[in-house]
Predict the 3D structure of the following.
Amino acid sequence: MGETRERETRASVGFSAKCGDERLGEEKKSNHRGDGIAGESEEVLLRQLSKDDLDSQSKKPNPEVEAGASNALGEVLANEGKATEAQAAYDSAAKLNPASAAMYFTNEAIIMDRAGQVDGTVAAADKAIAADPTKPVPYYLKGKALINKATVDQKTGKIIAPPGCADAYQKYLELAPDGPFAPEVKSVLQEMGETIKSNYKAGKKS
């Protein structure tokens, strides 16, 4: 009986996460607009970065262009399962264009989440939060990743999440109470037995 309850609970959370993945795809697409290089192969992007290095010897390099190439390279590497190299590429993008660091780290978190890299997702989300703590999506991504490490109480069926999970979800609701992930976040928090604060005011969407 307890095993059945656990499977049902995990299935419920998994369904919510799948819905969230579709919305995250739209978030990542919006973060790529303007790069003009999304979807290129690793070879092409590496060649572009090398060209930028050569060009910098004769003219002032364009940090935004170089950062965009590193950002796109990070996605390609992550999709190839090269998590460490992907993280380095995103770090490079943020270093080249600090003003957009939060966006690059959010992209990293989305890609790591899609690749099933739980620890990588949390690390990237934390970097995005540090770069701009006012953006809601990184908090959602952190909570979504951490919930994968949750266990289920056999007696109550309640989800027992690791430290930081509930706080991340609550922060998302604080920043985006009417955001696209709000229904999923509230559902998971309820499964965890958490009290959803009622003083969140509708405002910024993720």
Notes: The mean pLDDT is 79. The CA atoms of residues 169 and 185 lie 6 Å apart. The chain is about 65% helix and 0% strand.
